[in-house]
Amino acid sequence: MEKAAETAGKKAYEERLKRLVDATEMREPDQVPISLGLSYFPAKFTGGEVWDAFYDFPKWRAAYLAAAREYQPDRLLLVPSACGRTLEMIDSRQTKWPGHGVARHHTHQFVEGEYMKEDEYDLFLNDMSDYLVRFYLPRAYGIMGPLGNLPPLSSLFNMLPYNNLASDDFVKMMETLTEAARAAVRWQRNWAELGRELEEAGFFCAMPLMGVASPFDMISDFLRGMRGAMLDMFRRPEKLQQACEQMCRLMLERIAATPPAEGFQPVLMPLHRGAHGFMSLAQFERYYWPYLKAVCSALIEKGYTPDLFFEGDYNSRLEYLAELPRGKAIARFDQVDMVRAKEVVGKNICIAGNMPVSTLQMGTKEEVERECKRILDAAAPGGGFIMSPASSLDEVNPENMRVWIDCTREYGKY
Questions:
Q1: What is the Cα 215 distance to its own chain's centre?
Q2: 168-200 vs 2-24: helix axis angle to the nearest 10?
Q3: pLDDT digits (tens, 9 = 90+) for 318-364
Q4: What H or E segment, with its residue span, contains residue 111?
Q5: What is the pLDDT of residue 7?
Q6: What is the Cα–Cα distance from 105 to 389, expressed in whole angstroms?
């Protein structure tokens, strides 16, 4: 029995992988592949709590497997949740998670802030490591406050700061960090095991390559915040551009140190601030696209497939995306005219999206089918299309999910 299940899982995996590769490389697969980031939907599907995704992994594993087996997508975007116990111990100020800042049934929330002040660009640009250790980390994580008392890291070659290292606060920080790190590693192993289990069951779900993102988003999300980054484009444009260049160099160094891809390995990159409404086209050309394109090129050179999730309205930016090499990337859209996306981008790279989650959450069966067919008519002809949701599936109606998946399978054949 186990052997038969293993054989069936392997056969399903190979069929789904071929379907995804064919679409990505601009060929017609046997049918339109379906890619789902289940996120916290398993809680909705099973009647559980999102809290489980942070604290009760056996329960969350069972919920995740149940949702995957029910809907049978070709690909699962497996993005691990953080360990709640670790977040507690490090006193994360950048996250609110179930039971800590939001209700147990609610999705986590990222808390933006100006963790780098407007007048600190030179500190960041002159010595990024020193800045991150002595300024950024103490602001982002409460447990790391003692790092702010350290002398500049450039002084460490001469003498260790014994008084700082021996202080009660520093010792307590290190003890807590060790315990938090061990809990995080155990949690990461759980997710890795779930990934292996899902692939054995026949689903393609390559784990994300961590630490690779849009350089501008890294600055806006984690350092300056949206408000700070937007103001900097007018008040400190040269410093912001220098920071983008430096962050881009960091991304390229990380990619260079990464082993070459083995087979089909998409690299998920959600893109936050390059959309219409966040910056003008001139600003997009200066601060966003050159550095994102450089990161994509480096990934492609290493054999990876940039899997770009363009959040927001990208209708005015489609011509830029078409600059990526043919069949080497995936462009998933949130808010875009899919007819135009197919004409402009879809001739060169695979497009994905953009089934509205509002329809999946509140629509009738007829509305779900109508929207699904509209997207397939616009984007599927000739191949080079992957069906995906426009955004998070956390709160969608499980029955509408079933309608959407079935409609894609029935109507999306070649």
A1: 14
A2: 100
A3: 999 999 999 999 999 999 999 999 999 999 999 998 999 999 999 99
A4: none
A5: 82
A6: 21
- Domain assignments of the chain as residue spans, ordered by start: 82-205
Are 32 and 385 in contact by the 8 Å Cβ rule? The answer is yes
Its pTM surpasses 0.70:
yes
Q: Please, what's the largest Cα pairwise distance for the chain?
A: 72
User: Which backbone phi and psi does 211 adopt, to 5 degrees?
Assistant: 85, 5
pLDDT single digits (tens) 25-34: 999 999 999 9
**Crossing angle of the two packed helices 289-301 and 237-256, in degrees rounded to 10:** 10
Q: How far is 234 from 282, CA to CA, in rounded Å? A: 12
Residue 272 DSSP label: -
Displacement of CA 75 from its chain's centroid (Å): 15
Query: Distance between CA 227 and CA 116 in Å, rounded?
Result: 12
Residue with the two structure tokens 């999705």: 107
CA count, 13 A, side-chain hemisphere, 166: 4
Q: Find where tokens 């600059």 sit.
A: 323
290: Cβ contacts below 8 Å, ≥ 6 apart: none
Q: Tokens in use for 244?
A: 């983008």
Assess contact for 405 and 355: CB atoms under 8 A: no
Helix runs in 25-141, H state only: 41-46, 52-55, 57-71, 84-90, 121-126, 128-131, 137-140
pLDDT higher than 80, residue 211: no
- Averaged over 183-189, what is the pLDDT? 97
Tokens 């103490």 locate to 138
**CA-to-CA separations, 84 to 97, 184, 188, 210, 354, in angstroms, rounded:** 8, 9, 12, 19, 31
Indicate if the pLDDT at residue 194 is higher than 90: yes
